[in-house]
Here is the input.
Amino acid sequence: MKENRSASLFPKELVIESLKQSFVKLDPRTMFRNPIMFIVEVVTFVMLIVTVWAAATGNTAQGLAGYNIVVFIVLFLTLLFANFAEAIAEARGKAQADSLRKTREETPAKRVDANGTVTTVSSSQLKKGDVFICEAGDTIPSDGEIIEGLASIDESAITGESAPVIREAGGDKSSVTGGTKVLSDQIRVMVTTQPGESFLDKMIALVEGASRKKTPNEIALTILLAGFTLVFVVVCGTLKPLADYSGTQITIAAFISLFVCLIPTTIGGLLSAIGIAGMDRALRANVITKSGKAVETAGDIDTLLLDKTGTITIGNRKATQFYPVAGVDEHSFVQACLMASLSDETPEGKSIVELGRERGIRIRDLSTSGSRMIRFTAETKCSGVDLKDGTRIRKGAFDAIRRMSEAAGNKYPEEVAGLVGKISGNGGTPLVVSQDDFIIGVIELQDIIKPGIQERFERLRKMGVKTVMVTGDNPLTAKYIAEKAGVDDFIAEAKPEDKMNYIRKEQEAGKLVAMMGDGTNDAPALAQANVGVAMNSGTQAAKEAGNMVDLDNDPTKLIEIVEIGKQLLMTRGTLTTFSIANDVAKYFAIVPALFMVAIPQLAALNVMRLHSPESAILSAVIFNAVIIPILIPLALRGVAYKPIGASALLRRNLLIYGVGGVIAPFIGIKLIDMMVSLFF
Amino acid sequence: MNTELLGSIIQIILMVVLAYPLGKYIAKVYKGEKTCFDFLAPVERWIFKICGIDPKEEMSWKSFLKALLTVNLFWFFWGMILLWTQQYLPLNPDGNAGQSSHLSFNTCISFMVNCNLQHYSGESGLTYFTQLFVIMLFQFITAATGMAALAGIFKAMAAKTTKTIGNFWDLLMKSCTRILLPLSLVVGFILILQGTPMGFDGKMQLTTLEGHEQQISQGPAAAIIPIKQLGTNGGGYFGVNSSHPLENPTYLTNMVECWAILILPMAMVFALGFYLKRKKLSYTIFGVMLFAYLVSVGINTYYEMNGNPKIAEMGIDQAAGAMEGKETRLGAAATALWSCTTTVTSNGSVNGMHDSTMPLSGMMEMLNMQINTWFGGVGVGFMNYYAFLIIAVFISGLMVGRTPEFLGKKVEAREMKIATIVALAHPFVILIGTAVACYYYVYNPAFVEAEGGWLNNPGFHGLSEMLYEYTSSSANNGSGFEGLGDNTWFWNFTTGLALIISRYLPIVGQVAIAGLLAQKKFIPESAGTLKTDTATFAVMTFSVIFIVAALSFFPALTLGPIAEYFSIYL
Here is the structure.
């Protein structure tokens, strides 16, 4: 995992900007989006009026002027803290997105006009449908799709990965990203997005709040929190006549303090920051999400479709064994294999040469001058070499070589059929080798399972996520690799529609499915999946269809995305619990303080032995305010997810945030009271 | 061991042990499986035929509720008319008068909603005719209404995905004929043997040992008392309820009656386990409820048996416990047990005066009703718990990083909205009612004076009396701190309003949640699914209920029973 994580959660320039925003966000029209904090704003305003009125008229029935002012200030700070939490989350997300966007602003673009002339314009002038040329050394000015040519491209500006990648017209690797650099060759690229409408731009808009929609889960939680707020409106409102009956005078400041302490301001103040931070964490993992909902859904994923190649196995197969048929000398068989692979640039070909070298056969010993290389094509399904002396060596899929050999009137040896079966059963791919249409042996190619992938799957299993491997291999090979890697299920000989069918089947059973893909033929499945992650290198169609884009093109990213989603929900849940659990201590701080003067017996309820009614109330509101900034780092980072099973996780979080939420404010309020008691 | 305590322990054991097989039986009844009372089927079919009801028709949750509410409205008019005109109706040997309009409103509503708040006294306020055809009838059908609603919820919870939740009429009928009627017959038989009257003669004229003439009310009491207890109704045949020697003649009847209060609410929880084939879920729910119940029994028994220290200071022996307002033949422990049993459920019958219980006992009685989910009324008790279960599922689902789901159904905004409204309506009604009463008491003394002054006890206890009255109404309980003079225009109307809101809003909401969840796609369990039948989740549910339901009342309770407690004990 490559992370552009800044060392500090609070870089200085972001803090200054966020502080400014904290005041801007006091605008009631903005506050209205968050019902809990809006109510706090209303009562803060009431408190201001009371303070001014009491000071102006010299009325002390509502408490001393100094005390009222302090209560007002603390309430005001509560608002600022909550706004700051949201602002800093936004600022961090924006900063992250900006740093990605900056790379592509104002680079010169060589636009090809309709008449074929090339003019250099600024990248910001490029419109959707324009075509530009990039040569070695150019920075690509805009996102687009290669329509002609092939180039190696340095994408490190986006992905942090220094190894160059090949992008070419046609096929599934045709997308280029603005800000990346062409290292070799020349390509013609068509612009695919309007300026300001790229995925990144959309994501920035999401973070900035204007187009940020509450996710379904956030709405449900807001309803619950609004319900709690309402009940405390009633609790505090009805307390007035009850206190009148008991002959107790309660100041407006005390009423407001009790109310603000009881309503869930902690979670209310941090709720939107948590949501933004979720998207931000995804962005830090180099994933652009098209909606907050997608991140949330990722936490619920039941089934994960993973491509074998690149995710479970390292991209390429490696030759692991030579099997000459009976009557063929091993040395000459290996020689033949090497000659057939000498100019084979595929990783498989290179690995055959490497294995031969390990067997003591050097390339330079072989005379290949004057020979002609035969490239692999999809029709022939084999490659090889025609030597100067007319010897034809071929290697390829067993059915292709068999057909060729049988066409020449040779028998397909049973021994070979046995070898092919054995290798497939072991998860390998057999490569049959023929010399002048006689089959002389088989090379075993093996998939190399990525180190550490078993543990990751185990982790997913504990989260309750089922993993499914998708591969073009035959069922035997697929089964072997599936078992070795520890995936729960596999789709062998997969065609694009198989993915689609599998997703449909899982969804009909009520499951949520995530998949990753890059090709245009993946697009329907990406759209069908509940979470579809398109690789940035993939086609535009794939990127449009999915709801996330992975800038790293890293197929294991899905696993991280699931964890980010879970963290997001957990952070909301634990902070809600914490916020509500805090009420117990706040009741015990404020309720005795309200009635102690009129009903001295109730001093017995003052279990914290707080100094005076005024100090008790102040301590509770101060605790209520400062807990918000204290929890901002947690809200931004997210609660750590541990795959230990749902019940164990609930127990753990209930202990930390539930029991902790009951105890912490008792300690906190007492400590604050010791300081406040110096003044009140 | 102290025989009083032993009596309490035996009663509790009898409840728990017998609730299990009864729960199994109830599940069978609602699933439509074969039971030993199937011989009643022709009678049921005959009744359905007369009413033109097709008991096999599957109802959506909306038509289910429509049927429920329609029949309740019909009963309201039925009850109002009979109560108004009872003096002209037969079976009135004592010549009792009709009820005033606000009293008949209150009485009718109160029995229609299974609350049985009584602002009258049975001996003089009703006739034998209305006792039987309003009071007893309502005690059967309203209990059955709650049970039928829960049976609908059972069906919704059990099905993978369904649009229908059963037939209201069928479930209502079966609750009456298969469950309430047989049990009532058993209990009634024991009561008659122990001396509870059953007949239609008027007041009995007696000469006491002192030579005074005394009039003793009687009537068809043994027919009404069993269903009063079993259906969590609680409206006594006689004014002082089960502390009356004819309503509750012996310690044995006391045991049976107290047992009868809790047996069905307990059995309904077990029935859930059998119906859904999720016994572990029902055990954890039962465990939470039993724990809360035992805590409350413990507190009340302790304070009632230890007597009142202030009275002890006056030199009056408190060895028998705080005996003010209690029957000596029953004792402090039996009254303490009953006071908790009747308040955790929505029964509200009493065998001693709650107004006279010690401050913390009184607080526990109120708290039980304010929480209103520990076993609760037949059917509706579990339904209240269900609303909190949804909230607990939601919060804990988030805590484990998954969109919350309960029994394979995702809990989303719409269900949360309903659950929140249902869970919070209760403190709303109680606190606003009490606040209005306090406001009038403080700022409009002339009005209160015109209504007879309301309170017999000023100070903290006076507040408790008013708080108790609204708590009891809102919990559809019906017991009272009877020091409150509550047969007045103000109390009859405001509590009547509280009764209606607190009965129908939750039922509609809870059935709606179940119906909405039932329509959703079923999600199979995985390792990431939060299990709801674990001890951890039970603790979570308890905490949610306690913090949300109980803490809302903390300031009000502080000014009432807690202040009173510290005045006596400090």
